[in-house]
Each structure stands twice: as structure tokens, then as C-alpha cells.
Amino acid sequence: MLARRIIPCLDCDLGVPGGRVVKGIEFKQIRYAGIPWELAGRYYEEGADEIVFLDITASHERRDTMVSVIKKTSESVFVPLAVGGGIKSVEQARDVFNAGADKITVNTSALKRPQLISEIAERYGNQAVVIAIDAKRRYNPEDGRIVVSTPEGPCWFECSFYGGREFTGIDAIAWALEAERLGAGEILLTSMDRDGTYDGFDIPLTDAVASRVRIPVIASGGCASPEHMLEVFQRTKASAALAASIFHFGEWSIGDVKSYLKERGVNVRI
Question: Residue 147 in contact with residue 174, Cβ under 8 Å?
């Protein structure tokens, strides 16, 4: 089996000079976490397998700031960098790749125009396209939805966009399958219900998606400890686990997490 990856996520607010990393709870209650390239450098030294940058305040005017952040980071960080937020075209993706990114993540723009996935994949390869899915539980099963059993009852999962501010009516599991068909090479799957809560990954959601698609799935949302990462790797087919708060605020280092997992039989790169 391929090594499971540990990925720190940097949610970047580019509305301030130079940008800053922030972290919220259920996409709200934002607090300051650090400077993007400084945190990325620390995680690289600790052994991160990849680093995800998400521009949570994306706009045309601020895109140049993200390009600058990636250029500065890539000068001293030599693991794959995935970058998302406000990318609406192949041309905008090109600018991010030219700055040093290895992958781009798309959410809102792909939901609004799914063909964008194919366009970027055809130009840069499937492995360079990550579809970010921000999913919310809905306990009102409807016809045409993929219903999942959970300890709290049966539910389906709805896709959101615009940073979790709006909902689409689109079934998240069905969208994951469609994104794969269109050429996505990976899925970044975030549980909105678990984001920042420290309650652990949403196992039913992660299992439902990872067991249906053939491309790698990154589990995201709710990680508070190495135990949560162990659980998601043991109970689902997730290829990677993403976390933010536990790394940003010094609760765990990436090296400590990997050592914990390795000791319990999880194949990770040390």
C-alpha cells in the first residue's frame, strides 16, 4: 500500500499586506495562526508530505498576493504545494503553477462550470487537479440523494461553495464521482460539521466517498490528535489526513504524528 500522507492546511486571509494564516470553527470564529511561508517552512522541516494553501478571501485583486506567497514559499519548501481559492480559468491556474504550485484545488468554480476540471486536467494532467468538496450533513433524505447511515441517523451530504457561505443542493458524494469522471486526480473532502471542532474526522462521509471513487481522497475537518488520524486510516480508504489547528497552535508536530502512526502499523514516510 502507498504511504498515507499527513498534510497541513494553511487557510490564508490575503486581505492584509503579505497575507496571514487563520483558522476557524465550522467555517466561522476566525483566529490568527501565523505567516504563510513561515508556517510552511516549519511544516516542511517537520516532515509534511504536502502543504495545502487555501485563499479563503479570494478575489481578483488579491490573487497577486497568493502568487507572491507561493513564490516565496517554493524558494525553500520542497514538497508538493496545492493552492486553491478563486481559480476560475486555465489561465489563472497557469499563474499559480508558474509561481511554484504543484496542484491547484477548485471548488466554487468547478461546481458552477464543471468543464473547468477537464480543461485544467487536459493542460496540466489529472494529478494536478484537486477538487475541494465542503460537505454538510442533511438529515432529510430525499429521492435522488445518496443516503449514508451514521450513528446520528441516515443523512445525505450537501455541497457548499463560496467558502461555506452558500449551499448548492448538489449531493457531495455524487459530485465526487462526477468530478472523477471529468478528470480530477484527487478529492479534498472537508466535513463542515467537524471543521475546527476537534471531534475527529467524519468517518461515514469519508468512507462513503473514498470507497466509491478510485482517486485519492484527503480527509479533512475535525482532527484533534494522532488518534483521529489513526481512526480515519483504519476505518476508511482515505489516502491522506489533513489538519490545521493541531499543527498551527503547537499541540502536535508532524513528526510526532507520524511516529505515533508508524508505531501502530500505518505506512507513513518518516
Answer: no
Average pLDDT, the chain: 92
All three cell numbers of 101: 504550485
pLDDT digits (tens, 9 = 90+) for 13-37: 877 767 888 876 544 556 777 889 9
d(CA 211, CA 235): 11
Q: Is 200 left (phi over 0), alpha (psi -120 to 50) or beta?
A: left
∠ CA 76-80-85, nearest 5°, is 100
- How far, in Å, CA of 149 to CA of 128, rounded? 33
Active site residues: 11, 134
**Beta-bridge mates of residue 191:** 135
- What is the reported pLDDT for 29? 56
In this structure, what are the phi and psi dihedrals at residue 118, rounded to the nearest 5 degrees? -65, -40
Q: What does pTM read for this prediction?
A: 0.93
Domain residue limits, the chain: 5-263
Topology of domain 5-263, CATH: TIM Barrel (3.20.20)
